[in-house]
Design goal:
- With 443 residues, this protein is of the alpha/beta class.
- The chain has 3 domains: 88 residues, NAD(P)-binding Rossmann-like Domain (Rossmann fold, 3-Layer(aba) Sandwich); 204 residues, UDP-N-acetylmuramoyl-L-alanine:D-glutamate ligase (3-Layer(aba) Sandwich), CATH 3.40.1190; 135 residues, Alpha-Beta Complex (Protein-Tyrosine Phosphatase, Chain A).
- The chain is 34% helix and 21% strand.
Length: 443
């Protein structure tokens, strides 16, 4: 019997606590924040001791192994103290994977991993597979390993989760792209973040399917980090070079073609996401007939280029999940109509120059929504004819509506984290949709 401590009492932490207890270990959960009442109740029901609102270091350091929430940064005092003691420190993904014989599809990337994960899961589930959805999305992986009996899992994996994965070895590993993100967590060194993402391949074997965007300059530069013996499948925009080749009108696979115009998700970035999901699904054994049958019925996640209203011929788009600059780049590239862009929040070390050409060509007005818009104002304030800033969501939307003409798009695509004004990106997106409904109702 080992002493297992869980740091962080969210969905993944509570699930890990339940799984660890079921394995016969002594478990203690510690959350420095306020543990939700529902989680407190679940832990009490299973007689798992916990603390909320503090970390008792002395008790935590008695652990044989610690399972850490991805939200706790490596540079925090608690993590430094654990490292000094040499205690095993792992993610929920690493821990739960020890206790399942199910095959695993793991998907990571700076942008598009949620869409790719959901589409992969959709294709497997609709094809009749006994499949679970977990990781950075849905229910706790550990809890599903404990309570369910799936043959397959599709896991969305963040860099924070990968940082604490050491023996995790998915059967199908997918890397959709790498662009600068979370640099505040990686000492503002892009290389550190890149190495974190490539951990998805670190235990790949000869039988492992490694799927990645072959045109991505960063992936090309670090491709040697993918073990040579693996089953590599590249996605390319260059004709005839990849396992999936994206052209202007179609995506070409060995088994057939997908017409981009009739696909359920649009834009070049979504052609990439679709390619990765289809390659992952077919690597898992889904037939081409099932792919073509079930692809049209896919619906993307909320807060990702989500249509959420129309008023006087103006369309509203909720893209609150766009928490980095590249996600905004993809969003702007998905439309050929004038855009009024609502952007801003907690900057994560963003470099906005990558947006300059698209902003010049497509953005007729920009509204910065945040408590500190200095960096955005400095970069865009002098170049745009219509530029405003506010820390009130309703004011931002009202201003956008004043500028908008029939055929325009008002889009929330922040490029930043949400924690200055909102609980999380979901809360930001939900409030955006509710405010749009309020301001357009009856007008």
């Amino acid at each position: 019997m080992a002493q297992i401590v869980i740091l962080g009492g969210g969905e993944s932490g509570v699930g890990a606590a339940l799984l660890a207890q079921a394995q016969g270990h002594q478990v203690f959960l510690s959350d420095q924040g306020e543990l939700k009442a529902a989680y407190q109740s679940e832990l009490s029901q299973h007689q798992i001791p916990f603390e909320s609102g503090q970390h008792t270091l002395e008790r935590i350091l008695q652990a044989d192994e610690i399972i850490i929430s991805p939200g706790i940064p490596e540079k925090s005092a608690i993590v430094q103290a654990i490292k000094q003691q040499g205690i095993s420190l792992v993610s929920e993904i690493e821990y739960a994977a020890r206790y399942t014989n199910a095959k695993i599809i793991a998907i990571t990337g700076s942008n598009g991993k949620t869409t790719t994960t959901l589409l992969t899961y959709h294709l497997l589930k609709e094809a009749g597979y006994n499949v679970g959805l977990a990781g950075n999305i849905g229910q706790s992986f550990a809890k599903q390993v404990l309570e369910k009996s799936f043959d397959w899992y599709v896991l969305e994996i963040s860099s924070f989760q990968l940082d604490r994965c050491f023996h995790f070895a998915p059967d199908i590993a997918v890397l959709v792209n790498i662009t600068p993100d979370h640099l505040d967590r990686y000492e503002y060194k892009f290389e550190n973040y890149i190495h974190s993402k490539f951990r998805i391949f670190q235990n790949a074997q000869a039988s492992t399917n490694c799927i990645y965007w072959g045109d991505d300059e960063v992936i090309q530069q670090y491709q040697s980090l993918i073990p040579a013996k693996t089953q590599k499948q590249e996605i390319r925009f260059a004709p005839g070079k990849g396992s999936a080749t994206i052209t202007e009108k179609e995506i070409i696979f060995e088994a057939g073609k997908i017409q981009r115009a009739s696909a359920p998700i649009q834009g070049p970035h979504n052609a990439m996401n679709m390619s990765a999901a289809i390659l992952a699904a077919t690597a898992a054994g889904v037939t081409w007939a099932d792919v073509t049958k079930h692809l049209p019925t896919f619906q993307n996640a909320p807060h990702r280029l989500e249509p959420c209203g129309e008023w006087n011929g103006v369309h509203f788009i909720n893209d609150s999940k766009a928490t980095n600059v590249d996600a905004v780049y993809y969003a702007l590239n998905s439309f050929n109509k004038p855009i009024i862009l609502i952007i801003g929040g907690v900057d994560k070390g963003n470099e906005y120059a990558v947006l300059d050409t698209l902003v010049k060509d497509k953005v007729k007005g920009m509204i910065c929504l945040g408590t500190d818009n200095t960096k955005l104002e400095k970069h865009f304030g002098q170049t745009l004819e219509r530029f405003a800033q506010t820390d009130q969501l309703e004011t931002a939307i009202s201003q956008a509506m004043e500028w908008a003409n029939e055929g325009d798009i008002i889009m929330l695509s922040p490029a930043c984290a949400s924690f200055d004004l909102f609980k999380n990106y979901e809360d930001r997106g939900d409030q955006f949709k509710a405010t749009v409904k309020k301001l357009t109702h009856g007008k």
